[in-house]
Write a structure and sequence with these properties.
about 160 residues; mainly alpha; globular
Length: about 160
């Protein structure tokens, strides 16, 4: 794992507070809230990180898919559900349903990343954004949202 030095504490607090306030992952509206918050959070991160001296955009680029070594630490049912989303995010009838499908699985991916790299901080919303894998994961999820939005213009 790659730790991002000098990470703004304000972003860590914002992320932790959002997750503490949004614990009912399957409630109506929470899927959109999850996707929208993380899209905005990605933008805030890149506004800070990209112009920073020593920034390595390759380290925080979206994963095209979940790495095999991370997938190996997911349960087979979770891996199958994620593959279904990755293969056809546009198949979900609403953005909310897409987000509701992703959010609990996203929590499982955080755990698999923590296990894979031996870094329990990836399971802590107040620490996870300090790791490049957080941004790889959330960039991939944001790509799934973009695919959904292209297939459902105006929704």
């Amino acid at each position: 794992m790659s730790f991002i030095a000098n990470f703004p504490s304000s972003l860590l607090t914002e992320h932790a507070n959002w997750h503490m306030a949004h614990t009912n992952e399957r409630a109506r509206g929470e899927g959109v809230a999850f996707l929208d918050f993380h899209r905005q959070f990605l933008a805030q991160f890149h506004a800070w990180y990209d112009p920073s001296p020593g920034a390595n955009l390759g380290l925080v680029a979206p994963w095209p898919s979940i790495p095999a070594k991370v997938s190996a630490n997911l349960s087979p049912p979770v891996a199958r559900k994620l593959a279904k989303i990755a293969d056809a995010p546009a198949a979900y009838p609403t953005e909310d349903k897409l987000g509701i499908a992703i959010h609990p699985l996203h929590d499982q991916i955080h755990g698999a990343i923590a296990t894979t790299f031996g870094e329990p901080g990836m399971n802590d919303p107040s620490r996870a954004p300090q790791y490049t894998e957080f941004w790889n994961l959330h960039g991939m999820i944001d790509h799934w949202l973009a695919v959904w939005q292209q297939a459902h213009p105006g929704k």
